[in-house]
Amino acid sequence: MAASHLFVCIILCTYYSVAHGGDDDEHGFVTVLTSRSFQPEAAECSTSRVNLEPSRATAFVPLAHRHGPCAPSSQTSEMPSFTERLRRSRARANYIMSRASKGTVSTLADDDDANVTIPAHLGGSVDSLEYVVTVGLGTPAVPQVVLMDTGSDLSWVQCAPCNSTACYPQKDPLFDPSKSSTYAPIPCDTGACRNLTADDYGDGCVTSGGGSQCAFAIEYGDGSHTRGVYSKETLTLAPGVTVEDFHFGCADDQDGSNDRYDGLVGLGGAPESLVVRTSSVYGGAFSYCLPAQNSEAGFLALGGAPSANTSGFVFTPMRVEVATFYVVNLTGISVGGKQLDIPPAVFSKSTGMVIDSGTVVTELPNTAYSALRTAFRSAMTAYPLLPPNDDLGVDTCYNLTGFSNVTVPTVALTFDGGVRIDLDVPNGILLEGCLAFQEAGPDEFPGILGNVNQRTFEVLYDVSHGKVGFRAGAC
Ligand SMILES: *[C@@H]1O[C@H](CO)[C@@H](O)[C@H](O)[C@H]1NC(C)=O
Ligand SMILES: *[C@@H]1O[C@H](CO)[C@@H](O)[C@H](O)[C@H]1NC(C)=O
Ligand SMILES: *[C@@H]1O[C@H](CO)[C@@H](O)[C@H](O)[C@H]1NC(C)=O
Ligand SMILES: *[C@@H]1O[C@H](CO)[C@@H](O)[C@H](O)[C@H]1NC(C)=O
Ligand SMILES: *[C@@H]1O[C@H](CO)[C@@H](O)[C@H](O)[C@H]1NC(C)=O
Ligand SMILES: *[C@@H]1O[C@H](CO)[C@@H](O)[C@H](O)[C@H]1NC(C)=O
Ligand SMILES: *[C@@H]1O[C@H](CO)[C@@H](O)[C@H](O)[C@H]1NC(C)=O
Questions:
Q1: Which one of 325, 329, 353 would you pick to mutate in the ligand 5 pocket, going by the greatest count of ligand atoms within 8 A of its CB?
Q2: Strands 437-441 and 362-365
Q3: Got the DSSP string for 282-326?
Q4: Is 402 helix (H, G, I), strand (E, B) or coil?
Q5: b/e for 57-93, b at 16 or more Cβ within 10 A?
Q6: How far is it, in rounded angstroms, from Cα 352 to Cα 147?
Q7: Is residue 262 among the annotated active site residues?
Q8: What is the pLDDT of residues 165-184, one digit of tens each?
Q9: Element (H, E) at 339
Q10: Where is 9: in which H helix or E strand?
């Protein structure tokens, strides 16, 4: 008991000294040392800031940025360029906004002003996904490093046998169903198989060579795909914590780019999702904490906050859109402690903000973005604004070379119910010296709450109770 209190205290003390250490933020500004936040990151993984209620730690899975030192070493591959990361983020955002609005808005393509409507049956590219978790699959459990995705539902891993033409090279051995005593394909004649087609994850029952199997297929907008056999297995989340009837795609036909991860775990709101599949055990709730920096660890946890004790969380209503996406309503933004003058009607025109683990930069409809940019720029006049670079897509970047510290205005977002979250300074606001927000399109567009803004919060998706919680300083 004493030990666990000490543990929490150490973590809280570290957190507060980081968040409030440089200067006081009474006036809406925080001074941070550039050596801590804007220079190449530590090569060692730090887990010291993870702050999880011990009573909630049952289905707790360590989470890491896939290109950082906390990712399992077999998975670390070189980080794509900043421009490339932003391009991937924008492509994913376009897909989500198009789907979330059910095709009622067309998103703008990257390079020109042509409208692109993304057909609803195409999945979002997984290239942009940056956070991985390690789970155990099968019996005996084999560790699999999978991308975490709140923007899709169907989990999948590459399965043996699969030659180097049909599967991409991953660093871990392929998952081999023949070596697991609990593996089974899902029969055609089941509700689960029939649902695949309805949820755009393939054709369901396919007859080939005298037999039939439940086939899944995820087709992506760039023409690539992931296909294989819809299957069930035992999934191990943590030592002794298993999901007996985990549904996933055993993929033996891949096409397209990859970064050598073993697969993906889908946490969206459709029936294929791990969250929905396990709702009788975990109550249709999950949470994660994305760390402030890539050299730090975070966590993914299944299950909600104990209903008796939601202290530390603030909650806003949430709805599930298009079966998959989690949507909240943004109602206000403040910069440097001052509420921006954005009429409520501007926010209510939008169809809401999708909270997404895979989009990097937050997408705001036009009027809200313009107001934020103007206020942020006027609070940052001490630093040279870099000239616009169309390749980046973000337009408020600073050259912080030569500054030993930077005084950054606080940015707070307010959601329905008056719930305010103060973004981490600077790691929840700035990415490589750039304001981690961009313009999504006209005010009618949906927005997306990207993963930079979510850093250090435990974000709790309580799907059964229709609410999202935020707890500051969770990692
Ligand atoms: C894109 O769509 C908008 C709204 O539907 C329309 O006003 C605009 O002209 C379109 N742009 C192009 C290049 O087609
Ligand atoms: C790889 O497997 C696929 C499908 O099983 C097959 O069509 C292809 O010929 C194989 N390629 C090689 C190089 O063995
Ligand atoms: C199939 O989808 C329906 C509608 O979303 C859902 O209620 C049902 O539980 C699903 N069945 C299975 C076996 O996933
Ligand atoms: C609720 O959690 C907080 C820490 O988040 C703890 O200090 C408090 O004692 C807990 N209350 C109950 C009733 O368990
Ligand atoms: C968000 O706003 C829309 C339109 O103003 C409303 O219909 C919806 O109930 C609100 N709440 C959520 C959680 O979407
Ligand atoms: C950033 O500032 C440094 C120091 O003032 C300067 O040497 C460098 O050229 C600037 N970089 C850019 C991209 O403007
Ligand atoms: C920030 O840097 C300026 C100039 O380099 C220096 O005068 C000031 O003391 C520094 N502030 C903090 C809090 O380190």
A1: 329
A2: parallel
A3: HTTEEEEE--SSTTB-EEEEES---TT--TTEEEEE-EEETTTEE
A4: coil
A5: eebbbbbbbbbbbbbbeebbeeebebeebbbbbbbbb
A6: 25
A7: no
A8: 899 888 788 999 999 999 99
A9: strand 338-339
A10: helix 2-20
Element containing residue 360 per DSSP (H, E): none
CA 352 – ligand 5 centroid, Å: 7
Determine the atom of ligand 3 nearest the C-alpha atom of 190. Answer: 13
CA–centroid distance, 381 to ligand 7, in Å, is 16
* Cα Rg, the chain, nearest whole Å: 22
Query: Is the CB of residue 83 less than 8 Å from the CB of residue 394?
Result: no
Question: Residue with structure tokens 């393939």?
Answer: 202
Q: Helix and strand tally (H, E) in the chain?
A: 9, 31
Q: Tell me, in angstroms, the distance from the centre of ligand 1 to residue 313's CA.
A: 42
Q: Please give the domain boundaries of the chain with CATH numbers for all domains.
A: 3-19+46-303 (2.40.70.10), 314-471 (2.40.70.10)
Which carries the bigger pLDDT value, residue 36 or residue 111? 36
- The torsion of the CA quartet 342, 345, 347, 351, rounded to 10 degrees, works out to -170
* Opening angle at CA 320, ends 316 and 326, nearest 5: 60
CA-based torsion, 283, 276, 351, 264: positive or negative: positive
pLDDT at 205 > cutoff 50: yes
149 is catalytic: yes
DSSP assignment string, 146-192: EEEETT----EEEBSS--TTTS---SSPPB-GGG-SS-EEPPSSSHH
**CB 310 near ligand 4, within 6 Å:** no
Q: Supply the DSSP string of 90-108, one letter for each residue.
A: HHHHHHHHHHHTTTSS-EE
The arithmetic mean of pLDDT across residues 215-233, rounded, is 86
CA distance 195 to 49: 41
Partnered with residue 231 across adjacent β-strands are: 185, 248
Q: Which atom of ligand 1 is nearest to the CA of 106?
A: 2
Average pLDDT over residues 2-23: 33
